[in-house]
Amino acid sequence: MSGTRERDARADGAAGAGVPAEQALLLGELKAYEGRAAAEAGQGKDPVNEPMIRHWCEALGDTNPAYTGPEAIAPPTMLQAWTMGGLSGHSARSAAYEELFALLDGAGFTSVVATDCEQEYLRPLRPGDAITFDAVIESVSGQKTTKLGTGHFVTTRMDVQSNGEPAGTHRFRILKYAPARREPKPEQKQKQKSKGQRPRPVINRDNAGFWAGVDRHQLLIQRCTACRTLRFPWLPGCNACGSDQWDTVEASGEGTVYSYVVMHHPPFPAFDPPYAVGLVELAEGVRMISNVVGVAPDEVRIGMPVRAEFRQVDAELVLPVFRPTTAVSDALSGAGRTADVGSATEAGGVA
Amino acid sequence: MKDPRPGDVLPPLEIPVTRTLIVAGALASRDYQDVHHDAELAKEKGSPDIFMNILTTNGLVGRYVTDHFGPAAVLRNVKIRLGAPNYPGDTMVLTGAVAEVEGATARIDVVGTNGIGKHVTGTVTVSLPEGADA
């Protein structure tokens, strides 16, 4: 649709330097309406009357006694209400005003919102007063971008008479605009993005060999070539002798639960609490952290024999996890050390 | 009531913004724009719900000032600018302070704040008959 393209072109122009030709052309057309009548010889559909005053006061909770009784005046702020067309429309609306709105609609600025109202009250209005009015288009702004969208402000001034005498003026500003597209709220975006993605391990040159092994379904332990000490997790140097020379041995995968915690809270995306995080002592003597699976979290016990297996978590990620090797009830008697959050967290791992 | 002096603060007025107030205010002001009574059409136009029309806000600002100064006070001028819309379920708190006094005429600055921000900022000019103690 050419209408859409024109609107986009104008919006782009507003952000950059200069005003595109199309936009300038439209503004020229809009400006031509300044000073022209918006309404001519308008007549209030009803004279000022008690029922409408009462409905207004009820709606707004206004209990001012000045608005009731034989000496009642109308609430001054009702000034515009007496000039409204209602469901049957504005018969007094000028052709110029209709054209201006059609021009704005045609340019894509189809929505309308009132932004400013300035009223001056010259005399009180009383039941029975006949209302007449005239209005002029005071100004049409250049294209403005607001939170609601991009559009033009149109300001009109209306002079209101009661029984032919000036009763008040009413300056009104509206924004005719193209609604801005509504972005999803940040928390909704967050929800969509985080669904199901298990955190990635941080792989660097010091531990890349371990993760390469996991991809091949091998559990590799570092071994110092100087003093033969095994170490895990992977580090650049030996804790025992300081040597930076090392090779690897493949773990058998056998181990026992040295300690564990059961995570209930807080929940993290891709994790489904409660779940058990074990500190597993491998048969070779080093310890590592991972999930203990294939057993209810509250049935994991210290001393429980486990074996490593490799779980394809998603298309890109394989993780080593541990599964009990004996019937759960057999392990219950082996409970010795107290489960300790500290021991599990300080080691850092893949859980 | 004592003569107002610049700096005098008006007690706040809490307006629960109910769906009923929005619709009743729109109809009492003969404003049948769908965004003030039809939630579905309001959403089609990019608004999360119906919202209060400017005439109702204008009336509430006037009421706030005459509630305070009494029935003898005469509104001369009400000038308002709208900001954050008044949606159903919100509460608008009107606050005001006397900005200027000249003879028997006072200019009051009014702000209406809702849960989103400033719904309305405005000034009201009101005449107070001499010696009209409430």
TrEMBL record, chain A:
Q: Which InterPro entries match?
A: ChsH2_C, ChsH2_Znr, FAS1-like_DH_region, HotDog_dom_sf, NA-bd_OB-fold, Thioester_dehydratase-like
- Residue ranges of the region described as Disordered: 177-203
Query: Pfam families from the xrefs?
Result: FAS1_DH_region, OB_ChsH2_C, zf-ChsH2
UniProt domain ChsH2 C-terminal OB-fold: residue ranges: 249-311
Q: Which Gene3D superfamilies match?
A: Hotdog Thioesterase (3.10.129.10)
For bias type Basic and acidic residues, the affected ranges are 180-190
User: Where would I find the FAS1-like dehydratase domain in this sequence?
Assistant: 41-166
According to the entry, every stretch annotated as the ChsH2 rubredoxin-like zinc ribbon domain falls at 211-246
What the entry lists under PANTHER family is as follows: BLR3430 PROTEIN
Q: What is the protein name stated in its UniProt record?
A: OB-fold protein
UniProtKB/TrEMBL annotation, chain B:
Q: Output the superkingdom of the source species.
A: Bacteria
Query: InterPro entries of this UniProt entry?
Result: HotDog_dom_sf, MaoC-like_dom
Task: List each copy of the MaoC-like domain by range.
Answer: 12-115
What family does the entry list?
A: Belongs to the enoyl-CoA hydratase/isomerase family.
Instruction: Give the protein's recorded name.
Output: Acyl dehydratase
Q: Which organism is it from?
A: Streptomyces boluensis
Q: Name the lineage.
A: Bacteria, Bacillati, Actinomycetota, Actinomycetes, Kitasatosporales
